[in-house]
Each structure stands twice: as structure tokens, then as C-alpha cells.
Design brief:
Layout: E1 4-6, E2 12-14, H1 15-40, H2 53-67, H3 71-81, H4 93-110, H5 114-132, E3 144-151, H6 155-169, E4 170-171, E5 174-181, E6 184-191, E7 193-194, H7 200-211, E8 215-220
Antiparallel strand pairs: 1-2, 3-6, 3-8, 4-7, 5-6
Helix pairs in contact: 1-2, 1-4, 2-4, 4-5, 6-7
């Protein structure tokens, strides 16, 4: 007779099923961590979210196993999580993709959709390999990255002047991401060329003069 885990007044779960889901979730978390390290570990520009993968996967799986049999608990948890706010910014949009992958695999493990999660990882590996070949970069060739970090607690007061200057100086500018951390704001953009050429010292000086007294640091790659 299988050992059962009491999940509340409405349902019970076989002990073996619970551990199978947990082992699968941990394995998926390890794969997610390895994929991040392999394809993005050398970028050195993220917020270090991969450090949460190994603990986050099994934790999310346990959470969804616990709440899926109880509607009141699900609604109560939803209300409680609405007050949670993480202070660590997402510096690289790729991190969002890996976090979603981790959450999807954890939910798949909690609902015993192992085959579906396996197909998801197969597709993800295929997409990352295609991306690594540089084929997709063909459609974005010629663009460069610009990261502007402002030391300010009120970005809205400087936003109009900052964007006006960037629009003047950068051709083909495209916004990628915006992250905030306490008293600083980092703006990531992509562009094709600058009206000042490679005179980034002058670019930085003019930018700081335009947004004074706020100061900004400029990184170009």
C-alpha cells in the first residue's frame, strides 16, 4: 500500500509521486543552471539570478503541489504574493527567459507533465544553439550596445532631457531594458551609429552637462 501525504481536507498525494516530482524539478533546475552557464555565463552582465535556480525550482514545485488541491489556499497565496517585492534588478533580458523556463518546468513537475517539460527543454536547447551560431544576429548586425547609468532617485525628472540628447546623438536607437537599484538607474539601448563617431568622452561630457546636476556613467560595446 503506497504511503500518502495529507495535503489538507480535500486531497492526498502518494509519497512516491511527490518525490518523483521533486527529483524531476531539481533535475530541471540543474539543466536550467547549466544552460545559463553555458550560453550566458561569460556575459558577466546579469544580476546573478542563476544562483536561485537550484533552490527555486524545487521550492516552486512544492508550492504548486501544496496549493493545487485547495482553492482558498491558492487565492490566499495569490494575495500574499502581491505584497512581495524583489530588490534585485534584472540587468539582462535573457534572465527573464531563464526565470520563466524555471517556473514553467517547476509547474510542469508539480502537475506531473514530465513529457511536456521535456519537449520544452528540447526546444529551448535548439533555440539557444541556433542563437549561438549567430544566424539570428544577421538581422541585427551593425548595432552596438550602450548602457547609461544615472545616479538619481528621481529618474522621471531627468528622463525627458536624457532621451532628448540620446535621440539627437544616436541613429537607429532602440530601447532594450531599464533597471533600478536604490539610488541608480541603468538604461540599456542599442544603436547603429553616433553623430560624434567614437568620441565617447565628448559624448559623456555633453550628456552630463545636459542632465546636470544628475551624473551619468556611459558604457559602450
Amino acid at each position: 500500500m503506497p504511503v500518502l501525504i495529507n495535503l489538507g481536507p480535500t486531497s492526498e498525494l502518494a509519497f512516491s509521486e511527490f518525490w518523483a516530482a521533486m527529483v524531476f524539478s531539481l533535475a530541471a533546475s540543474v539543466v536550467t543552471y547549466l544552460l545559463y552557464a553555458l550560453f550566458y555565463g561569460d556575459a558577466q552582465r546579469g544580476a546573478g539570478v542563476q544562483r536561485t535556480f537550484l533552490l527555486g525550482g524545487p521550492a516552486i514545485t512544492t508550492l504548486f503541489i501544496a496549493i493545487q488541491f485547495s482553492l482558498p489556499l491558492s487565492l490566499g497565496l495569490l494575495g500574499a504574493l502581491s505584497f512581495v517585492r524583489f530588490r534585485t534588478p534584472i540587468k539582462d533580458p535573457a534572465e527573464i527567459g531563464f526565470l520563466l523556463l524555471l517556473i514553467a518546468s517547476s509547474i510542469g513537475a508539480a502537475t506531473y507533465n514530465y513529457e511536456l517539460v521535456g519537449l520544452l527543454y528540447a526546444m529551448v536547447v535548439l533555440v539557444l544553439l541556433v542563437q549561438r551560431t549567430g544566424f539570428l544576429a544577421f538581422f541585427d548586425r551593425g548595432r552596438r550596445d550602450l548602457i547609461v547609468t544615472l545616479q538619481t532617485t528621481n529618474y522621471s525628472a531627468d528622463e525627458e532631457r536624457l532621451l532628448a540628447y540620446l535621440d539627437e546623438q544616436l541613429r537607429g536607437m532602440r530601447h532594450e531594458s531599464l533597471s533600478t537599484l536604490e539610488d541608480s538607474v541603468s538604461l540599456h539601448l542599442r544603436f547603429r551609429s553616433s553623430r560624434l563617431g567614437e568620441q565617447w568622452g565628448q559624448f559623456s561630457s555633453e550628456l552630463n552637462a545636459r542632465i546636470a546636476p544628475t551624473t551619468a556613467e556611459v558604457y559602450v560595446s
